[in-house]
Structure formats: structure tokens, C-alpha cells
Amino acid sequence: MEKREDEQQKRDDSRFNQTLKNVQGFLKGRSIPGKVLLTRRSDPPPYPISPTYQRSLSENDAGRNERFESPVEVEDHNSSKKHDNTYAGKLRSNSSAERSVKEVQNLKIGVRSSDSARVMKFNKVLSETTVILEKLRELAWNGVPHYMRPDVWRLLLGYAPPNSDRREAVLRRKRLEYLESVGQFYDLPDSERSDDEINMLRQIAVDCPRTVPDVSFFQQEQVQKSLERILYTWAIRHPASGYVQGINDLVTPFLVIFLSEYLDGGVDCWSMSDLSAEKVSDVEADCYWCLTKLLDGMQDHYTFAQPGIQRLVFKLKELVRRIDEPVSRHMEEHGLEFLQFAFRWYNCLLIREIPFNLINRLWDTYLAEGDALPDFLVYIYASFLLTWSEELKKLDFQEMVMFLQHLPTHNWSDQELEMVLSRAYMWHSMFNNSPNHLAS
């Protein structure tokens, strides 16, 4: 019996490793040999299995000249029952794996969030008396139409209740609670604050002008004052962490999305002075509560020594080692530690690494992941890093540090971001329920 189990384990490992090689080929832009096994289905899947990826390249794509034109088929290599116990078959439930295949393979880059059929699906879900959050998450993962984001983000974060009959009253009450907190904690003379509170407020006041410096809107004094009120009020009400540099970045997507309900045109054309004090307060309140909900799921990322981030950086290192061993070995041989570049990624959730106009799309996926977000970040960041797999192997320590601190993403479009997310989803499907494959 044990011998048969060992033989089965070896067959499973062999198939898993072949699948991994196929994915590694996909990462490098080559056609995938064979078939990538992502489901346990023995019958033909009821959806198309031969779409084509195409990736437009920017001038800053650091020398990559391949185009992704890799048909990825999903098929059980043998329909006999002896293969039902493969690692790939155990990755997730059948429904989740099928969702992975559909989302990754049928990706229509750049149009998912505005496609008319998807808009109709969003309208149908949002028009229900009680929104079914699981359906909303499935839709939002691939992008939310911009004008729907305020409502969708409030729902995904649990700030607005799914029941539409209660929604308006809950938002009104929470906005009033925020306003009262600002009066209680922020609108005070320094003589009524402790030394620690004064120092914290000064640090926030220093950081606010540094927030998203390449977007002129955030240099407006009123915008910086709003950020200051939100951050200080949040920090006082969350003494376990208080204010940590980087949290200021996390407010910015919320501020842009909730202001978009009141201001038209591009962000660079906006002026907070066009809004009444009441509307500014409502926007700040929505930012405050959504930031609170987001950070509730990653509290140890911002407590003393930030152990949550350190844990995820270690997981990232292990995942990269398993997916792309040559890059991992090259970085290790040159003494580059993942903490030297990935700490900022986790601390600011990539806001400082990609163009600000792509952040909202990225955050659609973040918020759709819900409580699972911290673990899924590992896969997003592995995919992000290995976008430059070939380039990194040509650099020495100092060059890698400089490259990773100034990544060539400023010409990125939705296409590059969607590719990062689709790879992350595929790797999550492969590895998340197979933790032994991440162990040395």
C-alpha cells in the first residue's frame, strides 16, 4: 500500500512540476508546451479553450521583445480515474478552478471594466434589494466601471450594508460619527494633546505634501488638510498601530473615487474648493471608514515592527524561488534581500510603483479579494517582480537595487496590469492549497 502511494505521489509531483515548467514558459512569453492542467474535469470544458494573449510593449519594457501569443488549453491528459488525485486537481474546488480558467484565459485586456455586458451584470447585482456580495466580488475582480466604483467599493469593504433599505441610514450615521470624531480629536489646540499626539500630527503634516507628488491635485492645500484629518483621526482611534508612514498612500484611491461622485473631468482638473463643507466631510468620512475596513484585515502590517509585512515578504521570497529558481538564485548570490524592495510594496500596496491612473483598477481586485487579500498580495507581487525576470538576471547588486526602486512602469497601460493579475491568479490556483511545494 505504501509503495503504491509513493508511486502515486511521484506521478503527482511529476505532473505538478511539468505544469510549473509550462507556466514558467508562459512567464517568459513563450508558447506553452503541452496543456496546462488547472482543473480536474475529465469531460471537455463547456467554454472556449484557445484564446490568445497579446501584450503591447512600452519603450521602457527593458528589452523584452516577445509578444504573448500563447494559447493555454485546459484539459485532463487522461480521463481515467487514476489521475483524479493530482496536485492540480486539488488546487481549489472545481468551481473555483473553472473560474480561474475563465478569468485568466478569456481576459479581454483593457475592456473588461467597461464592456456593456459586464455593465449589465453589475446593474443586475446592484439593483437587488440585498446585494449578494459573492457575485459582486466575482464581477469586481476583473474591474469595475469607473462610475460604479464608489458604490461597489463601499459594499465590498462592508462599509455600506448589502440591504439597500438600510444603506442610506447607515451611511448617514457613520458620516456623522466621523464628523464627531474630528471635532473630538482633531479640532483641538496643541495644549490639549499629549506630546506623542503632537509628534504624530506633525509627522502626518510632513507626509501629506509628499503623497502622490506627481499628481498635482494632491498638492492642493485643501486636499492635504483632508488627508491630515482622515489620517490623524484614524491614528487616534487605532492606538495599537497609530500612524505609520505609508498609510497616507492608502487613503488616496478612496479620496479620488469618492470625490468622483461630485467632481467631473480628470483628477488634475479638480478643485476641492468647488465642494461644500458638507460634501467634503462626507467624502472624508467614506475614506476614513473604508481605510478602517481595509486595515482591519491587515492590522499586524502596521503594528510595532510590522510583523505581518515581514511574514509576507518571506512568503514572497519562497514563492519566487519555486516559480523562477534562476532569478531567486541570482538575487541570493548577489546578496539582495527581498526586504530591501518588497517591504515598500506591501507597506504602500504598490501605489508608489505603478502609474496612479492604474491604481483604481488594481484596487478593484484588492477589494474583491476581501479577507484573503494579504495572502493574495504574495502572488500579485511575485507576478509583478517576475515581469522583469530576464532583466534582473543581467544585473549586479547595485543595479538591481536601483532598478527595483525605479521600475520602468510609467508607460504601463491596463494591458500590463491585467497580465500581472492573470499570472497571479494562475499561480495562486497552483500553489495556495499546495503549501508543501513552497517548502525547501
From TrEMBL:
<feature type="compositionally biased region" description="Basic and acidic residues">
    <location>
        <begin position="1"/>
        <end position="15"/>
    </location>
</feature>
<feature type="domain" description="Rab-GAP TBC">
    <location>
        <begin position="143"/>
        <end position="370"/>
    </location>
</feature>
<dbReference type="GO" id="GO:0005096">
    <property type="term" value="F:GTPase activator activity"/>
</dbReference>
<keyword id="KW-0343">GTPase activation</keyword>
<feature type="region of interest" description="Disordered">
    <location>
        <begin position="1"/>
        <end position="99"/>
    </location>
</feature>
<feature type="compositionally biased region" description="Basic and acidic residues">
    <location>
        <begin position="61"/>
        <end position="85"/>
    </location>
</feature>
<dbReference type="Pfam" id="PF00566">
    <property type="entry name" value="RabGAP-TBC"/>
</dbReference>
<dbReference type="InterPro" id="IPR000195">
    <property type="entry name" value="Rab-GAP-TBC_dom"/>
</dbReference>
<protein>
    <submittedName>
        <fullName>Rab-GTPase-TBC domain superfamily</fullName>
    </submittedName>
</protein>
